[in-house]
Design goal:
By secondary structure, the chain is of the alpha+beta class. The chain has 2 domains: 6-41 and 135-234, PDZ domain (Pdz3 Domain); 51-122. Helices cover 21% and strands 38% of the residues. It is built from 6 helices and 16 strands. β13 and β14 form a beta hairpin. α1 crosses α6 (201-212).
């Protein structure tokens, strides 16, 4: 398996340092051999555009049996008409429910929207976001070779203004960790919706991601009394 959380690699090295990174890789047989060409370990990507940038909703057909309901979209670029049912996915958007008033969708960043013939409406509040693609093989290789960064990195469980999480310090300027969007004094509050308020939680999430083969990770961060989310797409 290749999909496990970048930050939990760091946590395991700092908090559970009984195994080193190379031993973890070999024991779990996570990775294929590293290819010869150079791959950037971390790439920041622009904010993901919403569904209304790609499609318009022409209408819906609702049946008593939910799995038979149909949403009718038009591709804004090709003008192709597309029929989609409940539970199916269109581009990176999952159809959650189809009603007469519109289509309820969930994005790859776990946000909920109602898409109607009049436009798109967000159902609930969400924090500002940044998006990254992380190649785990290259990330671990670069981190493993940066002894100075590993030695300086400090991760501490803290409570601040009703927030609990892991405070990070010792991040070098220009390091691979900084490239993932983390800064000194950041507090990681949640990973994939799970609160980081107990010392055993990072290891539990690490194991959960391995077992479920997840390739998307959301991290909720407190920085200078403001909360925002980083999303990581693992490859």
């Amino acid at each position: 398996m290749k999909n496990f959380l970048v930050f939990l690699v760091l946590f395991q090295m700092i908090l559970y340092c009984k195994e080193n990174i190379s031993e973890i890789i070999l024991k779990r047989n996570i990775f294929k051999p590293i290819e010869k060409q150079k791959i950037e370990p971390v790439r920041k990507i622009p904010e993901i555009e919403n569904i209304d940038k790609y499609y318009s909703l022409l209408g819906t057909v609702e049946f008593d049996e939910k799995d038979k309901s149909i949403a009718i979209f038009e591709d804004l670029k090709s003008k192709e008409i597309i029929f989609v049912k409940n539970g199916e996915q269109i581009k990176n958007f999952k159809i959650i429910d189809i009603k007469k008033e519109g289509v309820f969708i969930k994005t790859i960043t776990e946000e909920d929207f109602l898409f109607t013939t009049s436009g798109l409406r967000k159902i609930e509040f969400s924090y500002p976001k940044k998006f990254f693609v992380v190649n785990l093989k290259e990330f671990i290789e670069e981190l493993k070779n940066d002894k100075e960064q590993l030695n300086s990195l400090k991760v501490t469980l803290v409570n601040k203004n009703a927030f609990s999480g892991y405070k990070i310090n010792g991040i070098k300027e220009g390091s691979i960790i900084e490239k993932t969007g983390l800064l000194n004094n950041d507090i990681i509050l949640k990973i994939n919706g799970i609160k980081m308020d107990k010392s055993e939680n990072p290891f539990k999430i690490y194991e959960d991601i391995l077992k479920n083969g997840k390739n998307k990770v959301s991290v909720e961060i407190l920085r200078e009394n403001r909360v925002f989310n980083n999303f990581y797409f693992l490859e």
